[in-house]
Design brief:
The protein is built from 9 helices and 12 strands. By secondary structure, the protein is of the alpha/beta class. A 7-stranded parallel sheet has the order 8-7-6-9-10-11-12, sandwiched between helices. The chain has a 5-stranded parallel sheet with strand order 2-1-3-4-5, covered by helices on one side. Strand 1, helix 1 and strand 2 form a beta-alpha-beta unit. The longest helix has 20 residues. It starts with a strand and ends in a 15-residue tail after the last helix. The structure holds NADP nicotinamide-adenine-dinucleotide phosphate (NAP) and glyoxylic acid. The site of glyoxylic acid has 4 residues, from loops.
């Protein structure tokens, strides 16, 4: 009997041997092939694991049963106008992804508190730059925009080292010790209380450009910003202007509208900005294969899939 085919487009063709090695151990009944393998019959494809499939391609797989997003955010898949909406689209929600995101956000908050950008610049210049960071975690409130899988994990870790944490989401949330602010009506109060604002929102029409001047103006004077959501959510010119004016005391940005961020972009050199290369939380391929293999087995037993994209909500 021919094996069901899983097509992969995540990390480029060079990543295929690694994907295939892990699937061979955890799901040996699958035929795992590169996305552009011309020898694959489209009618044999039952599953795909993808990050950014070309628009229209998924709609040409007539027997497709499940689309697995290779990240937590599936905006590069869901934006396909011809996406087959009857096929479940599963988001990558491994416990390791939330752990990694929590660690990154905690690192970013501590970096802002301790002046990591300043320290890095002084070291690069071999300059002894003694200074005393004033604030500690115990007198700092971190406001998390998007209190979901990632935001919840970040909240718990930040609380663990003494930060006060508040959250803003579309619907009310109950996370122990975290005051929940809801929707547009409570955004102003949430921002006014936050010393560090962390964006962990999904990319949707509502969140597009949300990190721009009106929101920055509503933040505390001298507050700081961390964006680990998506580049489409920020207006980088507004963030750089707020850093220059002192409205923002610092920022950590992991995501950008154009990735990779071009070498000539002014964000790289800004003295109050830490830039990272969209690396906040990417679980290893072995972990993502374990998640997908487990869910394919569940699907084949007729079970309902968890963490599916909701077309009406947009995440
Ligand atoms: P999630 O569990 O779906 O949580 C999303 C949160 O955002 C929820 O709390 C949701 O509110 C809230 N939200 C959505 N739209 C909103 C709106 N218009 N106003 C206010 N709140 C809104 O998603 P997740 O797994 O935590 O991931 C979040 C995002 O992080 C992903 O979509 C992705 O863009 C980004 N991400 C980035 C990296 C990286 O490496 N930089 C890695 C992983 C994920 P409700 O709770 O009320 O639904
Ligand atoms: C990474 O950005 C993800 O969405 O998992």
């Amino acid at each position: 009997m021919t094996k069901p085919v899983l097509l992969v487009k995540s990390g480029g063709e060079a990543a295929m041997p690694e994907w295939q090695r892990h699937f061979a151990i955890l799901a040996p009944d699958l035929d795992v092939r590169w996305w552009d393998d011309a020898t694959v019959d489209p009618a044999a494809v039952r599953y795909v694991l993808v990050w950014d499939p070309e628009p229209g391609r998924l709609g040409r797989l007539p027997k497709l049963e499940v689309i697995f997003g290779s990240g937590a955010g599936v905006d590069f898949i869901a934006s396909d106008p011809d996406l087959p909406r009857h096929v479940p689209l599963v988001r990558m929600a491994t416990p390791g992804a939330a752990q990694r995101m929590g660690e990154y956000v905690t690192w970013a908050a501590l970096s802002l508190l301790k002046g990591a950008r300043r320290i890095g610049m002084a070291q690069a210049a071999r300059r002894w730059d003694y200074f005393e960071p004033e604030q500690t975690a115990t007198d700092t409130t971190v406001g998390i925009m998007g209190l979901g899988h990632m935001g919840g994990a970040a909240a718990r870790m930040l609380q663990g080292i003494g930060f006060t944490v508040i959250g803003w989401s579309r619907t009310p949330k109950e996370v122990p010790g975290v005051r929940s602010f809801v929707a547009a009506a409570e955004r102003g109060a949430f921002l006014a209380m936050s010393d560090i604002v962390v964006c962990l929102l999904p990319a949707t029409p509502e969140t597009r450009g949300i990190l721009s001047k009106p929101l920055l103006d509503g933040m505390k004077d001298g507050a700081a910003l961390v964006n680990v959501g998506r580049g489409s959510q920020q207006r980088i010119e507004d963030i750089l202007a707020a850093l220059d004016s002192g409205k923002l005391s610092g920022a950590v940005l992991d995501v950008f509208e154009q990735e990779p961020l071009p070498p000539e972009h002014p964000a790289w050199a800004h003295p109050k900005l830490l830039v990272t290369s969209h690396l906040a939380s990417l679980p290893p391929r072995s972990e993502r294969v374990a998640y997908v293999a487990k869910l394919i087995a569940a699907h084949e037993r007729g079970e309902k899939l968890p963490n599916t994209y909701d077309h009406d909500r947009g995440y």
